[in-house]
User: Fold this.
Amino acid sequence: MDSSSPSDHVLLLSVYSLGEEMEETLQSLQFENGQLRTELKAQQAANMKLRREKDDVLLALRQCKDENRVLYEELELRDQMFSEFREKREREIAELAAIKSDLELRLQRAGEEGDQGDTPGGHLVGGGVESPGDLRFVGSGFPQLNAREVVEALGKWEGMEDTISLFADLVKENSLNLRD
Assistant:
């Protein structure tokens, strides 16, 4: 009653055998697909981690560039301020050197006048040298200032403490020389 022929049976065995091979191939491909999917997920996770690290590095780089720009601007501003300060101080030093030279010359002349009497170039007001604060020069073409007035005038200049001290010492030395 079996209406199948041996050729049908071979065909069925062949199809069955082919189906088993395909099933094995399918299982093998599914296993390989699972492995590849696992690798893909791992690669995607690594890729995301690298992208986050790259973004963090780029952000840090931008921040460093901003800080560098700010520091550079501050440095330029400080250089400019220092240059202006240095130029101002150099002018003040030159002015003070001229004042010191003039005062030394005046004190020297006053000392010579004290030794020789009045000279036509100028004379001391007040009848002689009594103390450094009494020195007043007339006829020199400069305003009449005594030593105390010069010290007071210099005291109004910011940062002139050392100059005032030097001037006071110079006046003391010259007043001692004038008394000798």
